[in-house]
Amino acid sequence: MELLGISAALGLLIILAFRGFTLLLAAPAAAMLAAAFSGEPLLAKWTLTFMQGTAGFIRNFFPLFLLGGVFGKLMDDSGAALSIARAITAWLGESRAIMAVVLACAVLTYGGVSLFVVAFAVFPVASALFRQAKVPHRLIPPAIALGAFTFTMTALPGTPAIQNAIPMAYFGTTLFAAPGLGILASAIILGFGLWWLRVMERRARSAGEGYDAEAHIPADEHFVRSRAASADNFDPGELNHGYRSELLPSFALAATPIVIVLAVNLVMSMVVLPRIYTGFLAEPRFGETSLSAVSGVWSVVTALAFASLILVLILRKNLPELRATLDAGANASVLPALNTASLVGFGAVVAALPAFTVVRDGFLAVPGGPLVSIAVAANVMGGITGSASGGLIITLNALGETYAHLAAAIGIAPELMHRVAAISSGALAMLPHNGAVVTLLAICDATQRGSYREIMVVGLVGPLIALTAVIALGKLFGAF
Questions:
Q1: What is the structure's pLDDT at 224?
Q2: Dihedral sign (CA 205, 131, 254, 459)
Q3: Separation of alpha carbons 187 and 183, rounded Å
Q4: Does 466 score more than 90 pLDDT?
Q5: Whether residue 49 has pLDDT greater than 90
Q6: Strand residues in 381-456 grouped as ranges (E)
Q7: Which of 450, 426, 433, 380 is nearest to 163 (CA)?
Q8: Do 188 and 138 meet the contact criterion of CB atoms below 8 Å apart?
Q9: Packing angle between helix 356-364 and helix 369-385, nearest 10 degrees?
Q10: Which among 464, 474, 465, 461 has a CA at the least distance from the CA of 368?
Q11: What pLDDT does 472 receive?
Q12: For position 215, what pLDDT does the model report?
């Protein structure tokens, strides 16, 4: 009966998310349904268990969401994001329209810009480029998804994305965990995705399909807002943003903040934090924690704060309403953080149910050891929740400590566990009910019927191929 309740709760969560309900309502409703099937006290489960899980996530990761939102908004309002997108598309040219869009998105997201800031900034450029090159409009969403939703969020070492940050607290790693495997996985995802989109482009040309072949459904602003509310990194403030083309900064100035994010992140992780005194973290007033549990977030927030400051200094003339930009970025960070935290609260309630031991034991019993087990668990939970970060945090909250002990017992490097967990989070999470997928289609005035197959291939099939390669190589050679 309790397992039926968990299944019903997961089904309710999927239905509500797919129908566009905010996770602020969907997650506690689904959690209470699971608790009701188990005969648990509902008010206690909501106000205590659910909220403890939610609050714990906010405590650990809200600074990352906050500064990420501010940095993304600064990049957007200053025109830096659009400048980078235009420069890359101009360099690669009309004949490589798809590659240009993918790489423009990849550069921006790897530099810490919110994926939805990227989508809003790149789509107008992609639309003009695809129209000129006579590439079907329906291939714009998968091109953006490949660059913004895949390897730069989960696989590429050093990315400040939340999916890459979450495993650090459980495995004592950094954002640069298993760099060789991460780069290899990124190359597989990127290479496979570009190959597939190129094949689709050639087929479309052979069939005489042009830019306007698909009948598009105009995006409705209310629809975009409601569906995007469940996405990982949506910023509602971007819907009405505008750019002043004559004020766009040069590519060098626009790219400087992104370089700073990566450089400061690396220096903090590898040089500064390991050398400073952090013994005070073991004191009760700081929660008796350790440097390994906080170093990843400290590195990212320092990098984002420093890059934001430099951006303001070098592009101040492009930010005439600086306070409004800062306020909008800060305010827009709250909803994504609370959405993801609500999924964590849902996971906390489910994980506390007696029947969850069956689910946990099922994941742990998957043949292939901890690497395969964590890959299956993160994929399944990401697919169920429609959220890469939500599914990953639920998995690691329930099983992270167990996986860390199992890996240590058989000599698997924590860096390898980190990279496998991060890549796994972004595969099945790309199913059709994923809030990011639904919102991307709305932004691009595209349809599930016209564009989802290609989104699935580049965002789900490609990462699964890369994940298989990483696990196989990790078992043979360890982390590198």
A1: 47
A2: negative
A3: 6
A4: yes
A5: yes
A6: none
A7: 426
A8: no
A9: 130
A10: 474
A11: 96
A12: 43
- Could you give the CA distance from residue 259 to residue 402 in angstroms, rounded to a whole number? 37
How buried is residue 307: exposed, middle or buried, by Cβ count under 10 Å (0-12/13-18/19+)?
A: buried
Question: Rounded distance, CA 353 to CA 348, Å?
Answer: 9
What are the φ and ψ backbone dihedral angles of 319, each rounded to 5 degrees?
-125, 70
Residue with tokens 């268990």: 49
Structure tokens, 382: 């990401």
- Which amino acid, 410? I
Helices (H), 285-321: 291-314
Q: How far is CA 288 from the centre of its chain?
A: 29
How far is the C-alpha of 1 from the C-alpha of 449, rounded, in Å? 37
Closest CA relative to residue 332, chosen from 60, 120, 140 = 120
Q: Which residue has the tokens 């990227």?
A: 118
Question: What's the pTM value of the predicted model, to 2 decimals?
Answer: 0.82
Asked if residue 297 has pLDDT above 70, the reply is yes
Residue pair 311/80 in contact (Cβ under 8 Å)? The answer is yes
How many residues comprise the chain?
Answer: 480
Residue 352: count of CB within 10 angstroms of its CB: 20
Q: How confident is the model at residue 223 (pLDDT cuts 50, 70, 90)?
A: very low
Local confidence band at 72 (pLDDT 50, 70, 90 cut-offs): confident
Residue type at position 279: G
- Tokens representing residue 249 in the block: 């900064």
Torsion, Cα 336 340 346 350, to 10 degrees, reads: 170
pLDDT more than 70, % of the chain:
93
102's tokens: 């993918």
Residue pointed to by tokens 């008010």: 43
Q: Are 46 and 28 in contact (CB under 8 A)?
A: yes
Q: Phi and psi dihedrals of 160, rounded to 5?
A: -80, 10
User: Which positions ≥6 away from 324 have C-beta within 8 Å?
Assistant: none
**Alpha helices per DSSP H over 1-155:** 2-18, 23-37, 42-44, 51-77, 80-92, 97-110, 115-133, 140-148, 151-154
Other C-beta atoms closer than 10 Å to the C-beta of 361 total: 9
CA gap 315, 312 in Å, rounded: 5
Backbone angles phi, psi at 40, to 5 degrees: -85, 155
CA distance 424 to 374: 8
CA 198 to CA 292: how far, in whole Å?
42
